[in-house]
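Side project, low priority. Logging it here so it doesn't get lost.
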Amino acid sequence: MKLITTLVFVLLLAIPLNGFGQKTAQEKLTDLEKQKEKITLQEKKALKEEVKAINDKLTLGEITEQEAQQLKEEVAKKRAMNIENRLAIIDNKIALLERNNGEYLELDSLQNVERLMISIGGDDGEGTKIFGIRFDDRKNKPVKYDRRTYSDFVMAIGLNNALIDGESLSDSPYKIGGSRFFEMGVQWRTRVFKESNWLRFHYGFSFQFNGLKPDNNQFFVQNGNQTTLQEFDRELTKSKLRMDNLVFPIHFEFGPSRLFKSEEKIRYSLRKQFRVGLGAYGGFNIGTRQKLKYSLDGEKIKDKLKRDYNTSDLIYGLSAYAGFDNTVLYVKYDLNPIFKDAVVDQHNISLGLRFDLD
């Protein structure tokens, strides 16, 4: 429903309202004159980038000096013709406005406003993207030749449990299949080296929701600075402790990528590529609560108890992932104990799937 509402809102923004925000003939002419100045600057900047790329090839020994000179002459000629043709288009628009007192018919009325273009794209797109919808302003913004930083929405889900000092995971008092975790956040990934994408630095923030479901009809009881498991005096249909954390993960990611290169831009894509990430995270606990469900005198009772249960305030740990495309196997381990000052330390551990939604 939210997605539909967003789309409707964007479409409404793209519809021109007659009578509102209309520019005068002189304002339109002034805008066109400014466009002529931008055209020359834009084409010269593009030529500079192309010449730099040719020089780089020459330095690497990929082409000879003669080939480099020929390529430079070709791109210079192309950019000069681009300037000439684009300026001619603007001059024709100016003449059209002057001849028709600032008004003329257009095939597409949407050209009269600064419109939002919606596109569902991949790694090589431009513009601002929210939840997979790209709000594209490329019409007035020059394309950046090389983007070293990209952003992704991250979501992870899987099994959660605890490693207890002196005990194996099979002896855990928490349900193996019933205890789960969920994580969502935003990450930025930056190419470490200028000319290679085999190493990326990932950083961002995430909300982690770690759940523990005690076995054998037990629940958590806080006695002073100690939190222990005790048997409930009635049959529990649900017993769960949830710890909500805000953390800031950092990872170094290794793996191949595909290079897409054109005269206007170069982009590195991770689509259908294998990758491995190693890193850590740190943050703090933002809430702990326990949920109990049971029956009393034929009535179903749901208790939601919000206390700190002596859980650690500071959260820090190690994490890693490996996988293909935007789906990876994900594991994280808290180095901090779950409960402060506990007689026996317990450390949260999670295993699941992570999805990087670009």
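Brief comment: Confidence is low (pLDDT under 50) at residues 1-21, 108-126.
Revisit when time allows.
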